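Researcher: Please predict.
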Amino acid sequence: MPSEAPANQESVKGLPLVAPPSGKFLVQLFLVPGLIVAVALAVVWGFGWLVGGTYSAEQFLKDLRNPNTQVRWRRANDLAQVLPREKSLAANPKFALDLAELVRESLRDNAQNERAWAERSAGGSKSGSDKPDKILQEERDFIQYLIPCLGYLALPTGVPVLQELALAPDQGGDPENVMLRRRLAALALANLPQNLKYLDSLSADEQQTLLNALEAEGVRGSSERRMLAELSMDYIRARQAGELRALGVDQTLAECVKASNPASRDPILRERVAFALNLWEGNQEENRRMEETLLQLSYDDGHGAAAEEVPVRGMEIRHKAVEGLARKGSGLVSKRLGILEEMLDEDRQRQNFRMQSKTGREMADEALVASTVRGALRGLSELHRKKPDFDLSSFSSAIEKLLHSSNPDLRAEAERTQIALNQK
């Protein structure tokens, strides 16, 4: 056997020997990149803590009223990120009332500037322009960030303002700006029911503390503030008694899609109305009205969209409306069971919803396909839960087919639905 090479030998068969890595090299190779990653994560986490942890309700409100418009709308943007996860802020009575009042004040101030801009533009003066000036645009941005915040509150103080925005007339402002605010208001109303459920997680003592704070805040301000406080107090008490109320949202959303209302020409608004109606619950009369609106939307033809988008828009609205009827356990869904069957057909939805890839190749919009099928499955589960005697046997084969879907999430959802439908 060949002898072992001496320790100081510098080559083997003509190749130089490589010295083992030094401790310093190992530190550079592993520790330094690790420190870089750690610092980067600390910066990200630190920013998240800074936005969500250091700003109190008072600081938010102070910045939202700052004379500098850029400071205002940027803080409104921060607030929209913080409220969904900071429930103590979202359920703060004083903050919720102050925020609703601030939105109202901002809308009043902006309305004057919008009218002045519209008059200048219509007059065709040299100072007039088709585009708003910087200050007016920053006002619009500020309001556009504030509107969603009202839907992230855990108290219904923003409902009256959102209702007015959803029904805002075209006159007196830029039509596109008005349309955007309607859409934002409808989406905020859709987000609100989930956030109001936070009230159910509070103890009786915590709920009473909220009621006491709302009462105290209501007597300190204007008649409008008192009305918002009383509305919230009545809502909490009704919820304590096991009663759900729609707070007039059922009427507002029904009005949004009436043919006589110019706002009803907007297909995106109609889709958001259908989405919101999926989530709101009220008393018997309110639920009846919401179901009738959903039935109306279940026949939507997509009118108002660009010509090439009309078929898809119509389908999206019809699907969301029928899903809502099923979720509510409405007997009216029996008139539209065919739509539910279509929604469960994954292959058909791949033909319905198409998109272009970055390379220009047409392909199925898998996210929209999955959302449609999932909505139908969950709608069926809720329909069976609320109306266990409703015959849904005709959907068995479609659900069975989805158990073999290429989408694992849809397979799991189909399995849950099958189990739910087999329960009595």
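Model: Confidence is low (pLDDT under 50) at residues 1-19, 35-53.
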